[in-house]
Amino acid sequence: xxxxxxxxxxxxxxxxxxxxxxxxxxxxxxxxxxxxxxxxxxxxxxxxxxxxxxxxxxxxxxxxxxxxxxxxxxxxxxxxxxxxxxxxxxxxxxxxxxxxxxxxxxxxxxxxxxxxxxxxxxxxxxxxxxxxxxxxxxxxxxxxxxxxxxxxxxxxxxxxxxxxxxxxxxxxxxxxxxxxxxxxxxxxxxxxxxxxxxxxxxxxxxxxxxxxxxxxxxxxxxxxxxxxxxxxxxxxxxxxxxxxxxxxx
Length: 249
Known about the structure:
Blueprint: E1 5-11, H1 15-26, E2 32-38, H2 41-50, E3 55-59, H3 68-77, E4 83-87, H4 92-100, E5 105-108, H5 114-154, E6 158-163, E7 168-171, H6 173-178, E8 187-189, H7 190-196, H8 200-210, E9 216-222, E10 229-236, E11 241-248
Parallel strand pairs: 1-2, 1-3, 3-4, 4-5
Antiparallel strand pairs: 6-7, 6-11, 7-8, 9-10, 10-11
């Protein structure tokens, strides 16, 4: 972070407050702050349309925008921006509300110095970027799960996973549909699975006795909840886990 430079937009109509915040940010050597200032929402929109900022510091009460609508309208127009709200003493409760509208944090004017301001900005910056990374990972996972479900649907198959230490069995949604089982219960105990669907103990015993991680086997079982026979292609992937694909014979 020694050479990091962050682009900051301050939206503040009070010239004295703007000067003080610019002074505080100017004291920082790591990171350095590239400072921009707008004294109303109109000027802020012009800057935001032409620039990408790392942090937006904003007062809620401006000549052309007042209260919670200020941050609400800003984030509706320019979503996915890091906003730290600056409030007066009488607006401290409103500051808490701004977090619900998408602000990362809020600071009460007159209650922070340069050190507190910069620390708050950097905590908000790190938290904001961590949340973005988590959202990206979650999005990729959702895409992977969707593709996996599509593959199962395409081949009219389902996925099953046996956790030996926990003695639980995971059934994928396409598998539950294939077995005519309730869609709201993906995890069953081994005992429930044996009662309703599959002779899991037979799979476990054969896996423990003869399988190594790289081996795959195929067995045919009759299901109590399905008219006809389904096949299970299964593999022992570790000493703790057995996975399988189930499909019509």
